[in-house]
Design a protein that fits this description.
This protein has 2 domains: 2-81 and 191-223, Elongation Factor Tu (Ef-tu), domain 3; 87-173, Beta Barrel (Elongation Factor Tu (Ef-tu), domain 3). The protein is built from 3 helices and 19 strands. The longest helix has 10 residues, at 58-67. The protein has a 5-stranded antiparallel β-sheet with strand order 1-4-19-16-6, covered by helices on one side. The protein has a 4-stranded antiparallel β-sheet with strand order 13-8-7-14. The protein is mainly beta.
């Protein structure tokens, strides 16, 4: 729970979910662009608060020291004060979401969701910006999708689906649903498997009978794409 603990007390969270796009400006000032197709991993920079008591956080430091920049860790935003990042904005209830299933027709940049609830055809299954997770990977909906009258709905997402869905699997949407096992444990809601790329050092600032931990920078983590 080391990096998860840092997330829960972070003063800010930087997020990079950009495409990998190259730009070239010609001599006559014409700009051309091209997208280099990649897995488009999420990157996070966690800026921790500088007023953690050393005596109360030695276990956190030990866990960070153990995993360092080598081991995989898991960021679950729904269990922290950063729920707003992945919070679901559609019209389904948590029970209805837990009953839905990702269908085998899911491919490319389209997630096909079935086992839909009996709600109004104009109700929203997802809204633009909602997160959906399949296996280890999270995707962001790029359009509002209403229930309609069909047995399934197609949800366009921001990057190519990296998992072949061999049989329908339970959906994880926003803060709802149970993930596949990640590192031997399951999580509730969108969860990112990451490895730290930058691991800041720290100083101890004395106070009465204890010290504050003061970090030299942020923790930068990148999504692990297998």
């Amino acid at each position: 729970m080391s990096l998860q603990t840092i997330l829960s007390v972070a003063e800010s969270v930087g997020i990079n979910d950009h495409k990998f796009v190259g730009q070239m400006l010609s001599r006559n000032m014409r700009l051309s662009t091209s997208e280099i197709l990649t897995v488009q991993p999420f990157e996070f920079e966690l800026r921790p608060m500088n007023y953690l008591l050393y005596s109360q956080n030695r276990a956190v430091l030990s866990a960070l020291r153990e995993v360092d920049r080598q081991g995989e860790q898991y960021l679950n935003f729904g269990s922290t004060g950063w729920l707003n990042y992945i919070a679901y904005r559609g019209d389904m209830t948590s029970v209805q979401i837990n009953a839905t299933a990702i269908q085998t027709a899911t491919a490319n940049k389209t997630i096909v969701l079935g086992s839909l609830p009996s709600i109004s055809a104009s109700a929203y299954i997802v809204k633009t910006g909602d997160f959906i997770q399949i296996d280890r990977y999270a995707y962001i909906a790029t359009a509002d999708v209403q229930r309609g009258a069909s047995a399934t709905v197609n949800i366009p997402v921001h990057r190519t689906v990296m998992t072949t869905v061999a049989s329908p699997i339970g959906a994880v949407i926003g803060q709802y649903g149970t993930t596949t096992a990640l590192g031997g444990s399951t999580y509730t809601g969108i969860t990112f498997p990451v490895i730290m790329r930058d691991y800041p050092t720290y100083s101890l600032v004395p106070m009465t009978n204890d010290s504050f931990i003061q970090w030299t920078g942020g923790f930068r983590a990148i999504e692990v794409v297998l």
